[in-house]
TrEMBL record:
Top-level lineage group: Bacteria
Spans traversing the lipid bilayer: 27-49, 61-80, 92-114, 120-141, 153-172, 184-205, 217-236, 248-266, 286-311, 317-340, 352-371, 377-398, 510-530
Cited InterPro entries: EmrB-like (IPR004638), MFS (IPR011701), MFS_dom (IPR020846), MFS_trans_sf (IPR036259)
Major facilitator superfamily (MFS) profile domain sequence ranges: 27-534
Entry protein name: Multidrug resistance protein 3
Entry-linked PROSITE patterns: MFS
Length: 538
């Protein structure tokens, strides 16, 4: 019996037929290429973001580049589940790849940090479907116990992208130009051939007979969700500039609360067409799964955005060297992901792995909070290994938890909801952590500069022509500092730069301690609230 025959029988019977390992891996060979495309883009950009922001003169606004992608991906994710029900998995997946590719091309042509953020938003419209649809398809064709094993493969894909991404991103960012184009622009342009390969693979292996589901798209829900989320995320990014209780901030808080309230009302009335069906939240395991995805997403994205800045700003590493330095995270994540996936498949138990993972992630944040300007690299590597192991053990088990008690008829909506809450957490974490970092850094640097200037030797260092030239436009009247561009740190004497580096480290300590508190909340929920379920093999 062929794979297509098996699927036809499953479709005729109203439920997916159970496939063999070879058939599942055939389908996954196409899915992982699409997922690799999205995962690679995130890791490539993160390692080169400082170079991009410096070139476009927007270091303190760099959060927009990540936040814009996450906002649109978050809002688009639930829509992909409904669209694929209406039009089939394959055409919708191909549409997601096409949108992602168009956004990548536009990003490669950006001329300002805000223009780049807009184009990243276009990318996010496509990227929102790459992960969600892949996980939905796997949930369709596997049993709850099997999902841990195959989702482990997906996590391995992310691990591979995490290895390749920082290296590729660093290599391009280190090049002034390549074929007459700025080196960092190739970070986005390289998506063109990768997207073509992914599209060809999807067309060849993703041949599901489509059974049309008759329901309408929840346009009102999507609009209300956008009205609720976008203002709150703008405040998270701009609050440090406007003031957290300024009139503009208060207005956006109010709009966000109203939007989210309207979204809840709309979803209750939408029934089966709802983007996030309220009936799913009556399932305890689902509530815990999506809630923990949100909390862990805050810490994960916040840490993954801040750590490269420590390596590049404080340690003075190039983007490529910083990418190589993060390999302990990648290797630990890959090893633990594959191991945990097999253990879940064998035993059907996952709580122990979830608790251990969130505990390891909390420990990693505490290690990062102890970093100093002169800390040995092994100390940072220890934190990275703990973070990689923690995420490897927790992320796939959180997805398994959320899906464990959901009926197959709701699997698409449930999987989209999982990705929605993780993306929301990532958006909040990225915007809030970078906002805290740069709002805190300016004051900490100014304090350390004021202390250092009491030392005549340091004043002589600042007076040297090369140092004075490097600090042109950085030191503000009244003792303030401008942090829009960090390029001055490349040319500043190490002794003269020390107060700046100490200020950045002090601000990062606040960020990592905040991350540790968030991770601790996830650990406590996992340990005391998550039921010790045994997954079904049917």
């Amino acid at each position: 019996m062929t794979f297509s025959d098996t699927q036809q029988q499953g479709a005729a019977g109203g439920a997916p037929a159970r496939l063999g390992h070879r058939q599942i891996t055939t389908v996954m060979s196409g899915l992982v290429l699409g997922m690799f495309l999205g995962a690679l883009d995130q890791t490539v950009v993160s390692s080169a973001l400082r170079t991009i922001a410096d070139d476009l003169h927007g270091l303190t606004a760099q959060a927009w580049v990540t936040t814009a992608y996450l906002v649109t991906a978050t809002i688009a994710t639930p829509l992909y589940g409904k669209l694929s029900d209406l039009h089939g998995r394959r055409p919708v997946y191909l549409a997601a790849i096409a949108l992602f590719t168009a956004g990548s091309l536009l990003c490669g042509c950006a001329t300002s940090i805000y223009e780049l953020a807009v184009f990243r938003a276009v990318q996010g419209l496509g990227g929102g479907g790459l992960m969600s649809l892949a996980m939905t398809i796997v949930a369709d064709i596997t049993t709850p116990r099997e999902r841990g094993r195959y989702q482990g493969y997906f996590m391995a894909v992310f691990g591979g992208a995490s290895i390749v991404g920082p290296l590729v991103g660093g290599a391009f960012a280190d090049r002034t130009s390549l074929l007459g184009i700025d080196g960092w622009r190739w970070i986005f342009l390289i998506n063109m051939p990768l997207a073509a390969a992914a599209a060809v693979a999807i067309v060849r292996v993703l041949r599901f007979p489509h059974r049309r589901v008759r329901h309408r798209l929840d346009h009102a829900g999507a609009l209300a969700l956008a009205v609720g989320l976008v203002p709150l995320l703008i405040v998270a990014e701009q609050g440090r500039t406007w003031g957290w209780v300024s009139p503009r901030a208060l207005l956006l808080y109010a709009i966000g609360v109203v939007g989210l309230s309207v979204f809840v009302v709309v979803e209750r009335r939408a029934g089966d067409a709802a983007l996030l069906p309220p009936r799913l939240f009556r399932i305890r395991a689902f509530r815990l799964g999506v809630g923990l995805h949100f909390v862990v997403g805050i810490g994960m994205f916040g840490a993954m955005t801040t750590l490269p800045l420590y390596l590049q700003l404080v340690r003075g590493m190039s983007p490529m060297a910083a990418g190589l330095a993060t390999l302990p995270t990648v290797f630990a994540n890959l090893a633990v992901t594959l191991l945990v996936g097999r253990l879940i498949s064998r035993t059907g138990r996952f709580k122990v792995h979830l608790v251990a993972g969130t505990g390891s992630f909390t420990a990693a944040m505490l290690v990062f909070a102890t970093l100093r300007v002169d800390s040995p690299l092994w100390q940072a590597a220890l934190g990275m290994a703990l973070m990689g192991a923690g995420l490897g053990a927790s992320m796939q088990t959180l997805t398994t938890l959320a899906q464990s008690e959901v009926p197959r008829t709701d699997m698409g909506a449930a999987t989209a909801s999982v990705n929605f809450f993780r993306s929301n957490g990532g958006t909040v974490g990225t915007a809030a952590f970078l906002s805290v970092l740069f709002s805190t850094a300016a004051g900490r640097i100014a304090d350390r500069l004021a202390e250092a200037r009491h030392d005549p030797a340091y004043r002589r260092l600042l007076a040297r022509p090369d140092n004075a030239h490097a600090l042109t436009g950085v030191l503000r009247p009244g003792g303030g500092v401008g942090l829009e561009d960090s390029a001055f740190l490349h040319t500043l004497d190490r002794g003269a730069a020390l107060p700046f580096l100490q200020g950045y480290v002090a601000a990062m300590r606040v960020v990592f301690l905040t991350g540790a508190a968030v991770a601790l909340v996830a650990f406590l929920i996992a340990a005391w609230r998550v039921p010790n379920l045994t997954l079904s093999d049917e």
